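Write out the 3D structure for:
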Amino acid sequence: MSGKTHGYEVRVVWTGNDGTGTRTYRGYRRDHQIAAPGKAPIAGSSDPAFRGDPARWNPEELLVASLSACHKLWYLGLCSQSGVNVLSYEDDAHGTMIEEPGGAGQFTAVVLRPRVVIDAASDAALARDLHRKAHAMCFIARSVNFPVEAEPEIVVAA
């Protein structure tokens, strides 16, 4: 593989030590901060099913959000280059993870459900087709070992 190499630095700091560390499984919070230079920190935890704080982002949600955002960014760029004028874009993405009896697990699928509104002068068929190209280009979708599907809804503004 040749081409440009990009690096990404983040810092994750556990903030859930209530004074006794991890002495007991129930004796610590799963809270952490995700940070990168020049950016607001993200409050993270584990999924509430794993004793996490439901008010904080968990890694599973962030993975689904990364897939959705990557697809959206590629899609908007491809539309711009192809003469499709997108007026709004919303995605109600859903990820499915299977937990095994021993506690390990993995994602088995993510479904993106983008609702895209385009102007009346844009080609709706092309707008739909560009989702396939966006999926083929998305760095994150190309990096995971489970299927990522897009079920777009294209709406032409009146």
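The mean pLDDT is 95.
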